[in-house]
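Annotated sample (chain length 170).
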Amino acid sequence: MVYNCSDRTASMRFGFDTYTSEELEVLNDDNHCLSYFYSFQDEESSKEDCFEAVILQSSKDAGLTCGYYEFNIKYSDGTSKTYKTCNLFNSEATSKGQLDDKSKESFETYITSVKEDGKTVISYKVALSDDKGNSVVYDSLTKSISSSSTNSGAMTSLFKYLLLINLLLL
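Output written by the structure step:
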């Protein structure tokens, strides 16, 4: 990355991977998944933006997709705000009920970037989902993830209701 300042130019290198010209083209694409996450844009990303975003083939091969993230941030003054963006999503890791440290670190980076002046963040939740219907919620207070599927709750209620009817008919 090259930064042009008024009195000099500075360049920084992130990562140590070597990329092919095709991979560099994908990484520099404005429609790359991480472009939405790291641009900290004022306009919110839509699910379609995220699910249609591009990622490297090596990321796909590792089981990653571009996911849709909704951050609900709670402030110490009692207010809250929701931000919607895209980021890499690993359904295998989240299905095990765990979230890796790098993901938590990227959440903290995002929270810091969108933090409102004069407000202190007390907690946040992130609803993560992919285009296959996998979804979880990460809670910064409990440092845990849980299923966000509303269908599973409805199915459990339906199952209990049918079981009750079955017992009454016996």
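Annotation: The chain has a mean pLDDT of 82.
Annotation: The beta strands are 2-4, 9-11, 64-75, 80-90, 121-129, 135-139, 144-147.
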